[in-house]
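Problem statement: downstream parser choked on a complex file, so we are re-checking the raw output for the heme C run. The parser issue turned out to be on our end (a line-ending mismatch), but while we're here, posting the original submission so the record is complete.
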Amino acid sequence: MKKPLRPFLFAALFLLFSALLSFSAWADDRVLNILYTGAIRGELEPCGCAPETQSGGLARLSGFINAERAALDPFILVDAGNALAADTPQGRLKTEALLKSFRVIGYDVAALFDVPAFARPLLKETGLRALSSKALVRSVTVKRGHLKINVSVDPNARKNGMLNLLLTDKPVSEAASLGWDVVITSSGETTEGADKTTGPIVASGYPKGEKLGVISLRLDGNGRVSGFDQRWQTLGKDVAEDARVREVLKEYDAKVVELTKDEEKKTALAGPWLGAVACIECHEPFFESWAATRHSKAFASLEKAGKSRDPECVVCHTTGYGKEGGFISKTTTPGLVGVQCEVCHGPGKDHARGFSAPSGPVNETVCLKCHTKENSPEFDYELYREKIIH
Ligand code: HEC
Ligand code: HEC
Ligand code: HEC
Ligand code: HEC
């Protein structure tokens, strides 16, 4: 090659290279964010028992999406199923609140594999687009700009010329072989999201909605997937809540109170529980040391959270709840609020009468009834015992 030609060659190469670069930049511009949940299991919001349990909740999920809308666009928001609560009176109220919240949050599609009969009218009322394996509507087409997305719960309903997104409750290992562009499962496995480099793209929703899954797809000119990233969005205290979803949750809390109204009317039953005040007479120093622990304020924590009438919370924040003569409500059994002496030492009536019934030694098993992995993830018997010992 002759010397004078070289600069031209370089220049030509440079131009070609930068053209390629800008072409790929253009191609990279075509993205779609898939925001997904699955396996929420009726968890409207975290209990807030410990800092580690503070992530998640529908009000924050909605707040996050609203705040980040511009950065997330274009996106599609789907739930892969196992969202509803158990079919109990309180569970039904949760399911109602959940479906209403989904609508407010703006879910494009929610997979409800088995829609319980009581929830069917609710679905109509909320207008949520739901897919059911039992009903006629098993697939919908969602449009984002020029892109058409076939969202389905039917593994056989892939469509040509669209991006195919399957929602399933199958385990991740099975979902991988289904051959869809993207599969989101609600199997509840805590797999760390999708493999970030290779297809097929399979991801499972984070259990109890603690985190929001985000898959950023890169698409080529024909709308085919050319690459992707997956990340978890945590939903901690720093995320501002959506006030509209909070309204729905408040309505739920009020209905739970309504549900337990009859409890409130019950008169306290005679039973073996005395309440901490009855122990003062003979064990004053123990009473005082107990009063200085958080156990004595456990009911106040629920009142602060607006949950002091919620059976699902009261069970661990009071004394003898659900047992004969135990806590019913603050008005009926004011002497049994909080985690009192008898939670650890056993009911005290016989003991106080004749000191004849010494309570057994307090051991770790007693604590673990309430200090579960979920509600007290940092629990360490030795360390915690140190803090409450009198
Ligand atoms: C299985 C028992 C259990 C249930 C059910 C439970 N809690 Fe708790 N809660 C605990 C324990 C144990 C702690 C203390 C955790 C720790 O510090 O390790 C706690 C702590 C708390 C605190 C204090 C947090 C702080 O740092 O000040 C709040 C508030 C709370 N719970 C609210 C709730 C609400 C609301 C519910 C119902 C939705 C609920 N809890 C249900 C066991 C329970
Ligand atoms: C009936 C349920 C229950 C039982 C049983 C129970 N706890 Fe707790 N514990 C709680 C609740 C609820 C809280 C949180 C109170 C709050 O702040 O609202 C708590 C808080 C605590 C804290 C304060 C945590 C902190 O970080 O300051 C310690 C320590 C503790 N418990 C130790 C124990 C030990 C040790 C046992 C067993 C010997 C035990 N608890 C048994 C319900 C229980
Ligand atoms: C969170 C659990 C817990 C609570 C609540 C609690 N205690 Fe204790 N208590 C213990 C533990 C642990 C010991 C140590 C002895 C043992 O292991 O049995 C103890 C010991 C005692 C002892 C015997 C001390 C000795 O010399 O053997 C008395 C009396 C006592 N507690 C009274 C009370 C009274 C009264 C209250 C309520 C005002 C109370 N406790 C609340 C856990 C608790
Ligand atoms: C009328 C006085 C009296 C009352 C009221 C009373 N105790 Fe006692 N308690 C005693 C005496 C006395 C002992 C010591 C008994 C012994 O050494 O055999 C004792 C011992 C204990 C012990 C040590 C372990 C054991 O069983 O021997 C615990 C724990 C205890 N009491 C808890 C309580 C709790 C909790 C209450 C309230 C529900 C309570 N007591 C109410 C008098 C009382």
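For whoever reads this later: The CA atoms of residues 153 and 167 lie 5 Å apart.
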